[in-house]
Design a protein that fits this description.
Largest sheet: 2 strands, antiparallel
Shape: elongated
Distance between the termini: 47 Å
Strand content: 25-35%
Structural class: alpha+beta
Helix content: 10-25%
Number of strands: 6
Order of helices and strands: EEEEHEEH
Mean pLDDT: 93
Low-confidence stretches: none
Strand order of the largest sheet: 1-2
Number of helices: 2
Number of domains: 2
Length: 79
Protein backbone atom coordinates (compact mmCIF):
# COMPACT_ATOMS: atom_id res chain seq x y z
CA UNK A 1 0.00 0.00 0.00
CA UNK A 2 1.28 3.46 -0.89
CA UNK A 3 1.88 5.96 1.92
CA UNK A 4 -0.49 8.91 2.12
CA UNK A 5 0.23 12.26 3.73
CA UNK A 6 -1.78 13.38 6.77
CA UNK A 7 -3.29 16.82 6.18
CA UNK A 8 -2.65 17.89 9.80
CA UNK A 9 0.84 16.66 10.72
CA UNK A 10 2.06 15.99 7.15
CA UNK A 11 3.32 12.51 8.13
CA UNK A 12 3.60 10.00 5.26
CA UNK A 13 1.93 6.87 6.60
CA UNK A 14 1.05 3.60 4.89
CA UNK A 15 -1.98 3.09 7.18
CA UNK A 16 -3.52 6.53 6.68
CA UNK A 17 -7.30 6.69 6.40
CA UNK A 18 -9.75 9.00 4.73
CA UNK A 19 -12.90 10.73 5.96
CA UNK A 20 -15.38 12.22 3.50
CA UNK A 21 -17.48 15.17 4.71
CA UNK A 22 -19.74 17.17 2.42
CA UNK A 23 -18.07 15.57 -0.60
CA UNK A 24 -14.55 16.59 0.47
CA UNK A 25 -12.01 13.87 1.25
CA UNK A 26 -9.63 14.34 4.19
CA UNK A 27 -6.60 12.12 4.85
CA UNK A 28 -5.21 11.47 8.35
CA UNK A 29 -2.64 9.24 9.98
CA UNK A 30 -4.41 9.12 13.37
CA UNK A 31 -7.73 9.82 15.05
CA UNK A 32 -5.95 12.58 16.96
CA UNK A 33 -5.25 14.44 13.71
CA UNK A 34 -8.79 13.79 12.43
CA UNK A 35 -10.25 15.26 15.63
CA UNK A 36 -7.96 18.29 15.41
CA UNK A 37 -9.10 18.98 11.87
CA UNK A 38 -12.78 18.07 12.00
CA UNK A 39 -14.28 18.22 15.50
CA UNK A 40 -16.19 21.42 16.20
CA UNK A 41 -15.21 23.66 19.10
CA UNK A 42 -17.51 24.83 21.89
CA UNK A 43 -18.60 28.42 21.23
CA UNK A 44 -17.88 29.28 24.89
CA UNK A 45 -14.85 27.34 26.19
CA UNK A 46 -13.44 26.29 22.81
CA UNK A 47 -12.86 22.66 23.81
CA UNK A 48 -13.20 20.13 20.96
CA UNK A 49 -16.64 18.53 21.00
CA UNK A 50 -16.23 14.78 20.55
CA UNK A 51 -19.76 13.71 21.40
CA UNK A 52 -23.12 15.05 20.26
CA UNK A 53 -22.73 18.40 21.96
CA UNK A 54 -25.56 20.92 22.01
CA UNK A 55 -26.60 23.16 19.17
CA UNK A 56 -28.44 26.47 18.99
CA UNK A 57 -28.59 28.04 15.56
CA UNK A 58 -25.06 27.94 14.19
CA UNK A 59 -23.40 27.66 17.63
CA UNK A 60 -22.21 24.39 19.16
CA UNK A 61 -21.62 23.88 22.87
CA UNK A 62 -20.02 21.08 24.87
CA UNK A 63 -22.55 21.46 27.71
CA UNK A 64 -25.59 23.34 28.97
CA UNK A 65 -23.24 25.19 31.34
CA UNK A 66 -21.33 26.70 28.40
CA UNK A 67 -24.55 27.45 26.52
CA UNK A 68 -25.90 29.23 29.60
CA UNK A 69 -22.70 31.28 29.87
CA UNK A 70 -23.46 32.52 26.34
CA UNK A 71 -27.04 33.46 27.30
CA UNK A 72 -28.78 30.32 26.03
CA UNK A 73 -30.69 29.12 29.08
CA UNK A 74 -33.12 26.52 27.70
CA UNK A 75 -30.55 23.72 27.33
CA UNK A 76 -30.17 21.08 30.02
CA UNK A 77 -27.39 18.59 30.66
CA UNK A 78 -28.51 15.04 31.28
CA UNK A 79 -28.53 14.31 35.03
Amino acid sequence: MQAQKCEVCRNDYDKAFQVVIDGKTHTFDSFECAIEALAPRCAHCHVRILGHGMEKGTQMFCSAHCASAEGIREMRDRV
